[in-house]
Structure formats: structure tokens, C-alpha cells
């Protein structure tokens, strides 16, 4: 069963509780479940990084994942500020423009480039891009959705593998 909200995905493996009760040491059942969550988080992280590809690379490098075995949860997250992360994901609407320094860093593909350190020709290119973003906006990368869809696509296979591992532990 899958339950999902905009940024959260929850899965429940049917028959997992009954299988876990058959295992002599229930702590062993956490191992295949944790492995499943770890693999799902890695899949989500890679899908988000692939969807963002381009730009300065800061957004790609900021995407990470973490798994907790005690609560059996996993999270794919970015270290970028929420507003900027949503701007990357959804795009910018016309009138919602970026700063000149931000556009300079995109143009030169370096994280900390400032527009005033540029040559006059480069400054005119940056100004043109700034005006274009102000009038047209930008297209979003949709990396949050890409990660979610990729995890949902691979989860049945991961769940099946976790159940097989649980069955092997129950036989021992």
C-alpha cells in the first residue's frame, strides 16, 4: 500500500509483521528493512541529482540521504535553503527575478562569482539574462517529483527483496 503527500511517501509491506513474528530475534528483521530503505533513499538521491543536472552544481552536491533503522524511515534532502530549493524545483515566475550575483554564478558555472568582477561584455550578457528571467521567468527542474516517482517505481522490487530476506531469516 502506498500513501503519498507532496513531499512524503509512506509504504506498508503486507505480511511483514507476521513474518517478523516468526523470526526468533526480532532485531534481525530490521536488517532487511533498513537495507530496503537505504537502497530506496539512494535511488531517490540519484534521481534528484539527475533531474537537477546543470547549473553551478551546488544544488546537485547538496542533495543527500539519511536512513534511521530505529524508526525505519529514510529521507532524501537538500542542504539548500527551502525558498531557493523550491525555486529550483518549481522555476521562477515572471517578475520573481534572481540577483545579478546569482545569474553571474550560473553564467560562469562557479559558486561564488560576482557580477562586478566581470568584463563589460560579460556584464551585458548577465544583464540580458537578468532581464529575460524578469520578463519570462524560468522553467523548474522538478527534481522533488523525479525522486518521488523513481522511488515509487522501484519500491515494489525492493519490497519483494526485503520479504525474501525476511523469509530466509524466518527459516533459520
- What does the average pLDDT come to? 80
Strand order of the largest sheet: 1-2
Q: What structural class do you assign from the helix and strand content?
A: mainly alpha
C-alpha end-to-end distance: 28 Å
Please estimate the helix content: 55-70%
Total domains: 2
Please indicate the percent range of residues in DSSP E strands (runs of 2 or more).
Answer: 5-15%
| H/E series | EEHHHEEHHHH
Number of helices: 7
Largest sheet: 2 strands, antiparallel
Q: Which segments are poorly predicted (pLDDT under 50) over 5 or more consecutive residues?
A: 1-5
**What is the number of E strands?**
4
Rough outline: elongated
Oligomeric state as shown: single chain
Radius of gyration: 22 Å
Walk me through the structure.
With 172 residues, the chain is mainly alpha-helical. The protein has two domains: 2-90 and 141-171; 92-138, no CATH class. 57% of the residues lie in helices and 10% in strands. It contains seven helices and four strands. The chain has helices at residues 16-22, 30-52, 58-61, 82-90, 100-108, 120-136, 143-171; strands at 2-4, 9-11, 63-68, 73-78. Strands 1-2 form a two-stranded antiparallel ribbon. The chain is elongated, with a radius of gyration of 22 Å. The protein starts with a strand and ends with a helix. The relative contact order is 0.19.
Amino acid at each position: 500500500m502506498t500513501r503519498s503527500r507532496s513531499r512524503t511517501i509512506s509504504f506498508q509491506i503486507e505480511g511483514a509483521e507476521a513474518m517478523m513474528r516468526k523470526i526468533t530475534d526480532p532485531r534481525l528483521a530490521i536488517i532487511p528493512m533498513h537495507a530496503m530503505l537505504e537502497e530506496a533513499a539512494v535511488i531517490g538521491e540519484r534521481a534528484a541529482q539527475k533531474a537537477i543536472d546543470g547549473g553551478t552544481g551546488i544544488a546537485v552536491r547538496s542533495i543527500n540521504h539519511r536512513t534511521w533503522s530505529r524508526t525505519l524511515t529514510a529521507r532524501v534532502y537538500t542542504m539548500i535553503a527551502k525558498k531557493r530549493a523550491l525555486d529550483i524545483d518549481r522555476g521562477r515566475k515572471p517578475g520573481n527575478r534572481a540577483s545579478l550575483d546569482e545569474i553571474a554564478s550560473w553564467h560562469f558555472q562557479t559558486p561564488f562569482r560576482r557580477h562586478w568582477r566581470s568584463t563589460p561584455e560579460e556584464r551585458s550578457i548577465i544583464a540580458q539574462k537578468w532581464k529575460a528571467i524578469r520578463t519570462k521567468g524560468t522553467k523548474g527542474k522538478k527534481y522533488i517529483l523525479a525522486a518521488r516517482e523513481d522511488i515509487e517505481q522501484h519500491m515494489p522490487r525492493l519490497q519483494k527483496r526485503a520479504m525474501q530476506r525476511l523469509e530466509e531469516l524466518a527459516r533459520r
